[in-house]
Design goal:
about 15% strand, about 325 residues, 11 helices, alpha/beta
């Protein structure tokens, strides 16, 4: 029997990660022929590809002939990048440059996922045309990655996004969800950063933006260059923690706001808010309200679920 295989093909790198899983699901559920690749956690669902192996990258791209590649794979933990600069540069810059070259070889549209950390956070909101000035090595490697992909493939979209959250496999997968235990265990006080202004963004929304961008691009080859997407609720980590507590009817009086700039770890920009009007004017975008998104993401990790069911049912 003839099986209707969608004619639009998309390849997703980093498909095992928090964002990659959401991007894979979004394309897959919207009639794209979707292949995801990963490294450590790839099998059995995704192709096992080491992005530092140029032959492996060449082979999967030439075998699959994707129309679109969404490059989600990166070392995205600023403190890890500071400690392992060479490895981070290999993945964030060298592998991205090679991927862009291979994408150009099959005329694939590449979406390179970048970060708000390319900006120093001193004069938000930032438009795509504003001059980057990263404060930490992570931001620097992602900015170098942007330049590398644009130099190697003119059919590239750079999509800068801020701190992400969503349906995590472990709480540590996101800088937002990792706070849940501190919120839940209210028997001891917890210090929370109340200095850095963040814009928590749901991975489902970023995934929808990637798909909309890809579909617009299939109709209009002028769709390329740099774009920004972000949630629009401004919150410090302290405010996110309070919102999480509120979403689950948990106490928040044990959470302590710390208003000094952090002294440990990689430098962070104070407020790297992204101006998203360029995508909005194209009719692209989706935003999940933070309380609804965080409730959906964290519900499986709620410690007293059983207790609640016996009390309320």
């Amino acid at each position: 029997e003839d099986v209707d295989v969608p004619s639009r093909r998309v390849l997703i790198t980093g498909a095992t990660g928090l964002l990659g899983r959401a991007v894979f699901k979004e394309f897959n559920e919207n009639n794209w022929n979707t292949v995801g690749c990963g490294y450590r956690r790839a099998q059995p669902r995704f192709e096992h590809v080491n992005l530092l192996d140029s032959i492996a990258v060449h082979d999967i791209i030439h075998d699959f002939q994707p129309h679109v590649i969404v490059h989600c794979a990166a070392e995205r933990r600023p403190d890890v990048v500071e400690g392992q600069p060479d490895a981070a540069s290999q993945l964030n810059v060298a592998a991205s440059a090679n991927l862009a070259k291979e994408a150009a070889g099959v005329r694939a549209f590449l979406i390179y996922i970048s970060t708000d950390y390319v900006f120093d956070g001193t004069s938000p909101p930032y438009k795509e045309t504003d001059v980057p000035n990263p404060l930490n090595l992570y931001g620097k490697t992602k900015l170098e990655g942007e330049k590398a992909v644009l130099e190697n493939n003119e059919d590239t979209a750079v999509l800068r996004i801020p701190v992400l959250y969503g349906e995590v496999e472990r709480l540590e997968e996101s800088a937002v969800t990792v706070m849940f235990d501190k919120v839940q265990f209210s028997n001891k006080s917890a210090n929370m950063d109340h200095w850095q202004q963040r814009f928590p963004t749901n991975v489902k929304d970023v995934a929808a933006v990637c798909r909309q961008l890809a579909e617009k691009r299939m109709l209009d080859p002028s769709i390329k260059g740099t774009f920004h997407w972000s949630g629009n609720e401004q919150m410090t980590k302290y405010e996110m923690a309070c919102a999480i507590a509120d979403a689950f009817n948990l106490p928040s009086s044990h959470l302590r706001p710390i208003t000094d700039s952090p002294v440990v770890g990689a430098l962070r920009p104070k407020n790297a808010q992204l101006d998203c009007s360029k995508l909005e004017m194209l009719g692209i975008g989706q935003r999940t309200p933070f309380r609804a998104g965080i409730r959906e993401s964290l519900w499986p990790f709620l410690v007293d679920k059983r207790w609640r069911q016996t009390v309320f049912h």
